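sorry for the late reply, my laptop died twice this morning and i had to redo everyting from scratch. anyway the thing you sent over, i finally got around to it. pasting the sequence first so we're on the same page, its 230 residues, then the predicted structure underneath. double check i copied it right bc i was rushing
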Amino acid sequence: MVKVIVDTREPAIIPVLLLKLGVDVERQPVTPGDYILASDCAVERKTTSDFFNSLYSGRLFEQIERLRTSYGKTLLVIEGDIKEELMSRRNPRAFWGALLKIQMDYNLPTINTYDALETADLLATLAKRLQSSSKEHIQPRHKPKILTVKERQIYTVCGLPGVGKGLAVRLLTHFGSVRRVYSASKTELMGVEGIGDVKAEQITELLDTPFTEGGSRKDTFNKLTLSLDK
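ok and here's the structure:
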């Protein structure tokens, strides 16, 4: 019987659909990837909203790089109505730019499925094709993420309100270190492209508000907007 290993964080509907299609399913933690279809083939699945969120947070290309270095055959599945998602985004060209980079620079095939049923059909079809000529036992390949100092610096600055990866890089470039970013005044922060009065106020408010264990939050702190830098 054809078998697919499914990451435990994936929605239950897809394993159920795979079982109905005659595929044996084993659920276990998988990283990188979400579905292991053969010993050398893994699939990363993202909904349209997941794709945008991981793109703006800076996780997307790191995940793709780990996937490609772990498996010889890889596939990215974007599940959902792309047109509808693009209509709700302020910068739809970011999607096309990312998609071009994935396919042309990373040579990673990308397929769009409309819903979970189409995704399950695709996975079952590909798994049967790969396993029809091989009896090799399927085994996920674990490749843990090891952050460099630079990546940890960017990750740390991304913890500030309204700061995505692009803005974090600009802040670090401007101030030279994480410590200087965190000690910058509101006026100094506003000297960096992408930071206006509101965002600078949100950052300084977060950094300067005294911590009280178990205490109530300030009303102004509740109003912080954590929009990603685009």
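The CA atoms of residues 39 and 138 lie 5 Å apart.
thats about all i looked at so far, will dig more tmrw
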